[in-house]
From TrEMBL:
This is Ribosome biogenesis protein BOP1. It comes from Scleropages formosus (Asian bonytongue). The gene is BOP1. GO terms for cellular component: nucleoplasm; PeBoW complex; preribosome, large subunit precursor. Residues 196-454 form the BOP1 N-terminal domain. Residues 1-136, 154-180 are annotated as: Disordered. Component of the PeBoW complex, composed of BOP1, PES1 and WDR12. Within the PeBoW complex BOP1 interacts directly with PES1 and WDR12. The PeBoW complex also associates with the 66S pre-ribosome.
Length: 798
């Protein structure tokens, strides 16, 4: 029983809903009949309405329960699809057929006339619209509902009956809305699309689902190929909202062209329409309103009276002051008159007061004293002078009384000059710094406070027949060795200037160096491709005998290693000259230097290959090439006096190598074109370099890799530089024939920079073949300097 009662409840509700729908239909039809009776007209005079051309509707919900009012008002469900529209058409056909059967011939005839009229009016138009016809059957009458479904989903309909017509419905002002033109495929709204550039999607659709970006975006190559191959590329635009390419139609392209040319978007718009004057200029007889004026329009207002009384009281009390009229006169001020420090111009820092005029004196009086009057000679002299040279710009004159004084002839001229003084006077005060030129010169100690240093020429060593390229002193300072282009090596006694020994060699001597070890008596001489170790037999017998024993005690190794040079024992003739060892190089040698301990020897070859620098060990007669590759052309080399450092000078820089670690430590930039010579301070922290562009660069190794000071005292190329071992002195020799001795004090305090002071210029050498001083060397114990020149002499300055 409960089950049966439950199933019968929905049936009862369905029957009740159907009965309610029938009652509502009857009421609507009765109301329509009442409206139609008011507008009865002849059937033939009823206006025929043409169907407007619009796009197809998205769909209609034409269920049997829809009332005629919903169809007339144009309200539809825009969310239905095309299948609903097909079902609606079928429902309309069924209702129409049922109406024909009930009404008979009258209704059928009316239907055929409407169909014929519709087909005639819609001929030649694109089939983009649907005619919706709906008939409702009432008691003996038929109501035909005809409408056109448009693109925006609204319906404009007509309601006709036999012999009756209705007026056109009112146009809905919200029928066309700009919101319908928006693309609703992406519902993100009016937001920048750059916000989605880091996300895989570009927005959301109507259902809230993500709209994903295309898997592969077009790069420039795809864009170029598309431009070349796609014929519609020029009419394709990219939609950022949906990440799709849209092909513009001809109508859209013509619209773009019209907008670009400044025309209106609508083709049918007439921009020159005749002006319609809504308000005519004729005065009408009857007024628009015949309303009489109010009483308050001609009676004084009490509120305004109260306001005026308050303002009058405020003016009397002085609370409200009347506005003063603005002064229209321009204000001028004298630029030069105010010298008061409290004035605006006086407070300005750069203000310059006006130049004051000279006060009048006795000579300008109309009755000056007799001593101010000029004589005839003075008058003639004044007239002959130029106006600029005259002390007075006028001639003093004497008059009996003030009435007889004529007008001043130079009044306008002097006023004009005064204006020029005011106008051309500089308006800007320039701060001039009064600097004494002597203060700019660095304060250096006087040379007499830096003594001792060599000042005069004491001895001249003559004997060579050609230019003397190199000199060297023994560690004791008693002997001097010199090498010349006359293929000889001469040994001199320093104190007397006597040539003790002359040794002939097989070529021009390029370099000569005495062994710095006082226990060994050896002199290294290089000429051509040979380096000769020479025993001069000038020292103590014990010393040079010990030197010979040291060289003779060499024992050849069992396995000979390949060496870049050849070590040879001289023959009997050469050993009588003092030759002890001969080192033959593959190329010519241009420099040789000793290590401070006296066992190692370095030689520089004049070759641009990898074998430019060689280091030899005398005790083991072994040679090696320390560098696999030389950077640049090596000019000279030198050992550090204390540390295991090796200095290699190329054309523009000096490289410092650590021989133990076998690595580059520093690179000193000389800032010169071509380095010619190099010397190292006995302390080992300072280096000087001479160059062919007449510069001497002092380097402080603890300070920087750039020169601490650059001296340009010489006028020509520098050939040699040298440090003194004990005194703070260094010297440089140049092709200008001079030797400049400088005081170079190096302090133990690292915070104090070296003191460099030029103290003396020594001259004595004569220029030969545009060459002057070729080498300089200091005495090891005394403040003496030796110089060798192109004039085949050696000079001693003490």
């Amino acid at each position: 029983m409960h089950a049966v009662s439950k199933s019968s409840e929905p049936r009862k509700t369905a029957k009740m809903s159907k009965s309610r729908e029938k009652n509502t239909k009857r009421r609507v039809v009765e109301d329509d009949e009442d409206q139609l009776d008011l507008f009865k007209e002849n059937k033939d005079e009823a206006p025929q309405k043409q169907v407007e051309k619009d796009g197809p509707s998205d769909g209609e919900d034409s269920d049997d329960s829809d009332s005629e009012e919903s169809v007339f008002s144009g309200l539809e469900d825009s969310g239905s699809d095309s299948e609903d529209s097909e079902e609606d058409e079928e429902d309309f056909e069924e209702e129409a057929s049922s109406g024909d059967e009930n009404q008979g011939e009258g209704s059928s005839g009316l239907k055929t006339k409407q169909e014929l009229s519709f087909t005639k009016k819609t001929q030649g138009k694109p089939q983009r619209e649907k005619l919706l016809v709906k008939e409702k059957t009432t008691a003996g009458k038929t109501v035909v509902l005809k409408g056109v479904a448009k693109d925006n989903g609204t319906v404009q309909g007509e309601k006709k009956s036999k012999g009756q017509a209705i007026p056109p419905p009112q146009v809905d002002e919200y029928e066309h809305d700009t919101s319908d033109e928006e693309d609703i495929r992406n519902t993100v709204g009016n937001v920048p699309m750059e916000w989605y550039q880091d996300y895989p999607h570009i927005g959301y659709d109507l259902e809230g689902k993500k709209i994903f970006k295309p898997i592969r975006n077009k790069d420039e190559l795809d864009e170029f190929l598309d431009k070349m191959e796609n014929p519609d590329y020029w009419r394709t635009v990219h939609d950022k909202m949906t990440s799709t390419d849209i092909r513009l139609t001809d109508e859209q392209i013509s619209l773009v062209h019209r907008l670009q040319s400044g025309q209106f978007g609508d083709v049918n718009f007439n921009e020159y329409e005749p002006y319609i004057d809504f308000f005519s200029g004729e005065t009408m007889i009857h007024p628009v309103t015949n309303r009489p004026q109010d009483k308050r329009s001609f009676i004084p207002s009490l509120i305004e009276k109260e306001k005026v009384s308050k303002m009058v009281h405020a003016i009397k009390m002085g609370w409200i002051k009347p506005r003063k009229p603005k002064e229209s006169d321009l204000q001028f001020y004298d630029l030069w008159a105010k010298e008061d420090p409290n004035a605006i111009l006086g407070r300005h820092k750069m203000h310059v007061p006006a130049p004051k005029m000279k006060l009048p004196g006795h000579e300008e009086s109309y009755n000056p004293p007799p001593e101010y009057l000029l004589t005839e000679e003075e008058r003639l002299a004044w007239e002959q002078q130029d106006p600029e040279d005259r002390k007075l710009s006028f001639l003093p004159q004497k008059f009996s009384c003030l009435r007889s004084v004529p007008a001043y002839s130079r009044f306008i001229h002097e006023r004009f000059e005064r204006c020029l003084d005011l106008y051309l006077c500089p308006r800007q005060r320039k701060m001039r710094v009064n600097v004494d030129p002597e203060d700019l010169i660095p304060k250096l100690p006087k040379p007499r406070d830096l003594q001792p240093f060599p000042t005069i020429q004491s001895l001249i060593y003559r004997g060579h027949s050609s230019l003397v390229r190199c000199i060297s002193l023994s560690p004791s300072g008693q002997w001097l060795a010199s090498g010349s282009d006359d293929c000889t090596v001469r040994l001199w006694e320093v104190s007397t200037g006597r040539c003790m020994k002359t040794v002939e060699v097989g070529g021009a001597v390029r370099s000569i160096v005495w062994n710095p070890n006082p226990a060994i008596c050896l002199v290294a001489v290089c000429f051509n491709e040979t380096v000769v170790l020479l025993n001069p037999y000038l020292a103590d017998k014990l010393v040079y005998n010990a030197t010979d024993q040291l060289i003779a005690s060499y024992v050849e190794p069992e396995e000979e290693r390949p060496q870049p040079v050849q070590w040879q024992v001289p023959e009997i003739e050469d050993s009588d000259k003092g030759f002890r060892l001969i080192i033959t190089h593959p190329k010519s040698v241009k420099q040789v230097t000793w290590h401070s301990k006296g066992d190692y020897l370095a030689s520089v070859l004049s070759d641009n290959s990898n074998m430019q620098v060689l280091i030899h060990q005398v005790s083991k007669r072994r040679s090696q090439n320390p560098f696999r590759k030389n950077k640049g052309l090596v000019q000279c080399v030198s050992f550090h006096p204390i540390r295991p450092y090796f200095f290699v000078a190329s054309q523009r820089c000096v490289r410092v190598y650590n021989l133990i670690k076998q690595e580059l430590m520093k690179k000193l930039m000389a800032n010169c074109k071509w380095i010619s010579s190099m010397a190292i301070h006995p302390g080992g922290d300072n280096v000087i370099c001479g160059s062919y562009d007449s510069r001497l660069s002092w380097f402080d190794l603890d300070l920087s890799t750039k020169p601490y000071k650059v001296l340009r005292h010489h006028k020509k190329a520098l050939r040699g530089v040298a440090f003194h071992k004990n005194y703070p002195l260094f010297a440089s020799g140049s092709d200008d024939g001079s030797v400049i001795v400088c005081h170079g004090m190096v302090y133990n305090d690292l915070l104090q920079n070296p003191l460099i002071v030029p103290v003396k210029v020594l001259k004595g050498h004569t220029l030969t073949h545009n060459l002057g001083v070729l080498d300089v060397a200091f005495h090891p114990t005394q403040p003496w300097v030796f110089s060798s020149g192109a004039d085949a002499t050696i000079r001693l300055f003490t």
